[in-house]
Amino acid sequence: YEKGLEERFVELFSNQDGTANLTAYRLPVLEANRAMKHINRLAHSSKTRGDHRNIDQLRADTFLHLLYGKNAALNSDTAEGSGQNRRNTVDIRVDLTTLAGLDENPGQIPGWGPVIADIARQAADPDLVWQTTIVDQNGDVVSVGTTRRRPTLVQHRHLTTETPTCVGPGCRMPSHQSDIDHNQAWSKGGKTVRENLAPLCRHENLMKEAGWTLKRNPDSSYTWTSSHEHPYTTGTDPP
């Protein structure tokens, strides 16, 4: 796979009828799938608005127009509303043991086929959003969900409204100037959900690096526990 990537290239050549082919070879499989989904979404968006071209023509025209900057596959006044800038997700099916690094079984992208284990494990990449299906050794589905490290805009707004300041002991840094961080670290299995997020200024983030732990309580207060096991409960005025 890595050797194949090193040999990637783009080729332009002509057909006997006077048309041209523009083809990219040996591309990264995940990026190629995301690009194809982007082309499909734009093409179908044009089709639903009554474009007379068939779907294959729309895909081809969209591909070409995206490369040289023309937005002919979409009406210019509706390009933003169509979700052109929306991030693409890639559906991937992977064994739990492969995610844990216990074996090298390939993952599966529906409609595409197998991908090597290292690519499947990139589902944990914090800069990408993946829809994942985790299966056990019998092929039974264990979990279905979306991996995401960064909080969504809705989560960010909710937390900064609910908790106006950093939740550090005695800290009054406005939450909108703080980081929305995980109480239990993402790298240690912490999920990007409201119950595991809190606004923290840079100083309080250093406290966690120094061995302090943070937990959100049912009443929306937070309990810090020092490296010496001393608990400190903090809270902010409700909105």
End-to-end gap: 53 Å
Q: Give the mean pLDDT.
A: 79
Question: Which strand order does the major sheet show?
Answer: 3-6-7
Low-pLDDT stretches: 72-86
Task: Name a few traits of the molecule.
239 residues; alpha+beta; 3-stranded antiparallel beta sheet; 24% strand; 28% helix; 3-stranded mixed beta sheet
Tell me what you see in this structure.
The protein contains 7 helices and 12 strands. The protein has 239 residues and is α+β, with helices and mostly antiparallel strands. The strands form 5 sheets. It has a 3-stranded mixed beta sheet with strand order 3-6-7. It has a 3-stranded antiparallel beta sheet with strand order 10-11-12, with no helix packed on it. The radius of gyration is 24 Å and the shape is elongated. Mean pLDDT is 79; it is low at 72-86.
At a glance:
This protein has 239 residues and is α+β, with helices and mostly antiparallel strands. It has helices at residues 2-6, 29-48, 55-68, 96-99, 117-121, 153-162, 202-209, and strands at residues 9-14, 20-25, 90-95, 107-109, 113-115, 130-135, 141-147, 179-182, 197-200, 213-216, 222-225, 231-234. The protein is built from 7 helices and 12 strands.
What's the layout of helices and strands?
Elements: H1 2-6, E1 9-14, E2 20-25, H2 29-48, H3 55-68, E3 90-95, H4 96-99, E4 107-109, E5 113-115, H5 117-121, E6 130-135, E7 141-147, H6 153-162, E8 179-182, E9 197-200, H7 202-209, E10 213-216, E11 222-225, E12 231-234
Parallel strand pairs: 3-6
Antiparallel strand pairs: 1-2, 4-5, 6-7, 8-9, 10-11, 11-12
